[in-house]
Amino acid sequence: MFESFRQIIWDFDGVILDSNPWRTLGFRETLKDYPEESVQQLIDFHESNGGLSRYAKFNYFFKDILKNELDNDKLNVLLEKFRLIMLKNLIDENLIINDSIQAIKLLKDKDLFIISGSDQSELNYICERLNLSKYFKKILGSPLTKKENIKNLIQEGLIDPSLSCLIGDSHNDFEAATEFGIQFYGYNNEKLKGLGNYIESFKDLLNSDGLG
């Protein structure tokens, strides 16, 4: 399968790092002073929109759930609280998804990228601390959206959509890939099986490619 691609784009949360439960906890802790019912609505939105950034989710919480304005000062306070919770809990080698990392190591002859909804500076710091940065040509995240980051890579000549694939665990990943004609592969989320290509295990795929 992978032999036909020159570039492979990876989502991060839920694909490389088993971090989604901590992301959920981060929203609960950051918003613990707000009504529980409203926070649960945000959690439901968060879990249904895995690829969206925390910027978009905090804005959704205030504007769509609380029906309040969110100024930059308040947003920055929330972002900092969330960031500190993530840094405290995600720099943990036990959270690395071994199936994915073994594939990444075997695909070192490809141009590999991370494009995530997570904060870019935080993402790069976590990858550096977990010794993952060396495998990737670029590690990109929010505040730019996944679509914006993919568009920039195409414009820079780093990605050829016809020779690329994107591996993700959310419908947002699927939408980002298909908008640019990039082959999408779902992973680690059985709800994505109905979208077509789905990876049950990288080990089996790599063995079939003669890389395992």
TrEMBL record:
| Keyword set, alphabetical order | Hydrolase
GO molecular function terms noted in the UniProt entry: phosphoglycolate phosphatase activity
One Gene Ontology term, aspect cellular component: cytosol
Which superkingdom heads the taxonomic lineage of this protein's source? Bacteria
Q: What is its EC number?
A: 3.1.3.18
Spell out the reaction equation it catalyses: 2-phosphoglycolate + H2O = glycolate + phosphate
Single biological process term from Gene Ontology: DNA repair
Read off the SUPFAM superfamilies from this record.
Answer: HAD-like (SSF56784)
Q: Which family does it belong to?
A: Belongs to the HAD-like hydrolase superfamily. CbbY/CbbZ/Gph/YieH family.
Q: What is this protein called?
A: phosphoglycolate phosphatase
